[in-house]
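Margin note from the TA: students keep mixing up input and output lines. Inputs are the sequences; the output is the structure of the whole complex. Example:
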Amino acid sequence: MSLSLAAALNQAKTAGVDRLDAQLMLAHLLEKNRSWVIAHADDEVPAQLTAPWAVLLTRRAAGEPLAYLVGEKEFHGLSLQVTQDVLVPRPDTETLVDWALERLAPLAPDARVLDLGTGSGAIALAVKHAIPQSEVWAVDASAAALAVAQANAVRLGLPIQFRQGHWWQAVETQAFDLAVSNPPYIAEGDPHLNALIHEPLQALSSGPEGMDDLRDIIQHAPHHLTPGAWLLLEHGYNQAEQVQNCLTARGFTEVQTRTDAAGVPRCTAGRWPKRDIFDNSD
Ligand code: GLN
């Protein structure tokens, strides 16, 4: 039975799938762009693609992120390939990138930057793209995630130093002028996780309060930061105060929080102090 693009979009509506998502899935399937889909509403979906279309609709209707179904997601102006091995990059995290770029602006262009828990490579690649001379490193515990990030780096022509391992351990004794992380921060058992079952749990959840990895990263940061370096962290909507307290307790200065595009306190940063020349207490 033949199926026009308009009829396919009607099927999506009946299935409760957003029209924009449906257009993007059709475009992906037909290897066209969305405006082509809009302009060709009366064209037929080729017979061999009607079954794959039905599968995409079912998966999207079941809540699978669009990014996994079409294999890519736009982040900070870059098109990133994503698989189920990585968290889908969120617009919230662009706040963190913008802040990192602001803090890097006054530094030497070849500053050393580290992205902890890089996933698809989103943060590391956005920084490298904006400041091509910077020396960007990226770490992930998951080999599968690193493979996705590495493929993105190659495809975008953005060289990054990738390391596999647990947070700072992966970079051994290296020190950085700025470190940035969007670690897992949702509390175990938080009902919010029910809506995120398609994404890797190890990238989302961290201990009973969601604070375990944030605490771990802050605790070990000073050994890997140059004097005056910034540590910028994304966190949950209700964790700003705890993250501020952890940073202050660890000896960070200029601790401050920023809100994301939705107005939620989303990122907190601190500065590792420049060594006081009168302080010999080390
Ligand atoms: N911001 C994501 C969400 O709440 C979580 C990302 C993370 O845990 N780092 O959907």
